[in-house]
Design goal:
Blueprint lengths: L1 H5 L7 H13 L5 E5 L16 H4 L9 H14 L3 E5 L9 H10 L3 E6 L6 H9 L4 E5 L5 H8 L4 H14 L4 E6 L8 H11 L2 E5 L36 H8 L3 H12 L19 E4 L4 E3 L9 E2 L7 H14 L21 H8 L7 H9 L1
Parallel strand pairs: 1-2, 1-7, 2-3, 3-4, 4-5, 5-6
Antiparallel strand pairs: 7-8, 8-9
Helix pairs in contact: 10-14
Cofactor: [4Fe-4S] cluster
GO molecular function, one term: catalytic activity
Protein name: Radical SAM protein
Amino acid sequence: MAEDIQHGCSWLASSDIDHFLNRAAQRGIPLTVTLELTHRCNFRCVHCYLGDQEAIHKHRSKELDTEKILSLLDELVDAGTLFLTLTGGDPMLRPDFVRIYEYAVHRGLLVSVYCNGSLITDEIVNSFIKYPPRIIEVTLYGATEITFESITQQKGSFAACMNGVARLLQSKNRLRLKTMVMSLNYQEMPAIRNLVQKMGVGFRHDCAILPALPNDDNGGALNSKKGVKKLGLQETLRFRISPQQAVAIDHGDKILKEKIRQLSLHKPLLKKTTRLYKCAAGRSSFHITPYGRMQPCIITLYPFVDLLKKDNKLLSSWESLSEQIDQQRVTSNFICTSCVERKKCTGCPSSFLLESGCLEEVPSFYCDYTKCR
């Protein structure tokens, strides 16, 4: 989280941000919040953790309305939130996106926007020029149309994304691109990096494909082409690359490679702890779904609070959620507790649960990936 906050706040040292986050956690302040404005998307990505868009679109009427979202933004400010990420699905599918974005900015929140880049309109560009986001992050699935659209399953999506990226660059917005690395685009990563380098923007990648979330709105299925049998939530894993391939991709990033090397040379003396969750989720950050569900993060579904219930005010709901997370403890045989490599690991109990069905049963991918790094 410290690295993510540093984007757009480059004057802050990483150590200062870590201190900032720790102080927020100690004081019970939800410093960072992610708000999904919708699960709907105009792409149909084969690996998407949100699942089947055909089913998701049928739940549009259940999404939070504009006034409820604005009210939640007021409550976030009162609770001490500083960093807000607006995401989806694609948040720009909502006709009220600009109104929500500008309201958040006017309330003093430092807003990041995550999108697929294909829905950038004149209204959105003008809003971003007038009120620059902390960061706009666009997902780039490939350097060619064939690769990109083999993942999105949407004809014309590559051109639409590239057009959106060009508009954001032209308007001098602070842009970062990211790539989910999978078997379908692994070979194209050098070309993707070259493309990003020519643009002169920030870039990050992620090699850990997850099973789709067991959300109520996806029907327990993944995106598929019309007429093709729907696949189950675990089937996203067929696109995951090997730990060795993932490490090769990591080492293609000089900064990341050096960071991993330093962690290997100077393994920190980590205190053994019984806390199940060691990240900021539920300590200084939380997530809100399009349907008003507050949860620790986007993949940590429990504990949760329904913010649509009349008596559930945001601050008291946060305090309850945070207390429940703090009370969760590991069992004596959880291997991650004493692992000296855990600072290099990209997994967490919630990602383990999605794949193995148990918070403390670690899929082999994570251990192999960490050891290879």
